[in-house]
Design goal:
Layout (H helix, E strand, L loop, with lengths): L20 E6 L5 H13 L5 E5 L15 E4 L6 H13 L4 E5 L2 H5 L4 H7 L7 H17 L3 E16 L5 E10 L11 E5 L5 E7 L10 E2 L2 H11 L5 H10 L3 H10 L4 H16 L4 E2 L2 E2 L19 E2 L2
Parallel strand pairs: 1-5, 1-7, 2-3, 2-4, 4-5
Antiparallel strand pairs: 5-6, 7-8, 8-9, 10-11, 11-12
Helix pairs in contact: 1-6, 2-5, 7-9, 8-9
């Protein structure tokens, strides 16, 4: 057995361009769809690069006056597989930002996970057949090549507020998110709209852009700020250009190790460029500067590239 395959390595952290995974949750009527659209436009500055997967009875179309964004109306059954299919349609259309409005139906809607579980018998052991399907949906969100904004309904509660004038007023507010337990942990940022004036607070923030700051209203400027955060660090396009301009197998090996956090994304490009280099071996002073045996099937070997005389 090759022990090196299981060898642990300590590596320096690297920050590269990331795709946003952002959630907006609120009771009905607090402005989830509108806020998501404002965020998306701030990130793209191009309405045509935004797609809304709409499960809310075509509510996104009410905002068509904002711009020419794209809508995919998703109806029941709201199975995880149907959501995945809708995401793939948007990805193939080269959308920059996909808004899923909302993910609540995947959990609690007709044909969603709770109903699937019930139809299987509603027993605890029946979750073993439902949870893998739901996890595939979550994984699709996490691994998408697009920025993803999800909206989630919150259960509605009411309280009685007495104003300074002594008059009582019924206040609507949200409680628990209606989706799978722990979904918030998968997100980069989670916004909660707390009233009908679209005022927002942050319940999770890996960007450190909003923590400790006062409540605010989501605008396109917030989207611009988030896009700037996503664009910090190593650009994947720059890495791709480095791979294309590399002329030796040793150079490819170096890039593969250098960008260790991007290896899954760049591996196909490394292999493709390797093939191109092997088919175009350069001869300098009657010496072959590429040793085609230094690469293995998974992309790169640790052995060094040696020059040898062409016979």
């Amino acid at each position: 057995m090759n022990q090196n395959k299981y060898k642990m390595q300590l590596q320096q952290t690297q920050r590269h361009n990331v795709k946003l995974r952002l959630g907006i949750s609120a009771p009905s009527g607090f402005g989830k769809t509108y806020s998501a659209l404002q965020l998306a436009y701030g990130m793209t500055q191009d309405w045509s690069k935004i797609a809304v997967i709409d499960t809310e009875n075509s509510s996104a179309s009410l905002y068509s006056d904002l711009g020419n964004f794209n809508v995919l109306n998703l109806t029941a059954p709201y199975s995880p597989e149907r959501y995945i299919e809708a995401l793939e349609v948007c990805e193939k259309a080269n959308m920059e930002v996909i808004i899923i409005d909302s993910i609540t139906h995947e959990w609690q809607g007709g044909g969603g996970c709770l109903q699937i579980h019930e139809l299987l018998g509603g027993r605890f052991q029946d979750w073993s057949k439902v949870k893998p399907r739901h996890q595939k949906f979550i994984d699709k969100i996490l691994h998408s090549k697009c920025h993803i904004i999800t909206t989630t309904r919150r259960k509605t509660d009411y309280s009685l507020d007495v104003g300074s004038n002594g008059k009582s007023k019924v206040i609507k507010h949200g409680t628990k998110e209606i989706t799978s337990e722990g979904f918030e942990y998968e997100l980069s940022v989670n916004f909660e709209l707390i009233n009908e004036n679209h005022l927002c607070k942050v319940s999770k923030d890996r960007t450190n852009l909003f923590q400790g700051k006062p409540e605010f209203i989501i605008t396109s400027e917030v989207g611009k700020t988030l896009k700037a955060w996503c664009s910090q660090g190593i650009s994947l396009e720059d890495v791709k250009q480095e791979i294309k301009s590399t002329t030796t197998l040793e150079g490819l090996r170096h890039l593969y190790q250098k960008y260790n956090t991007l290896q899954q994304l760049i591996k196909p490009l490394i292999i493709e460029r390797k093939s191109e280099i092997e088919n175009n071996i350069q001869i300098v002073d009657n010496k072959e500067i590429i040793n085609t045996k230094t690469f293995t099937k998974n992309g790169i070997d640790n052995s060094s590239t040696n020059t040898r005389n062409r016979q």
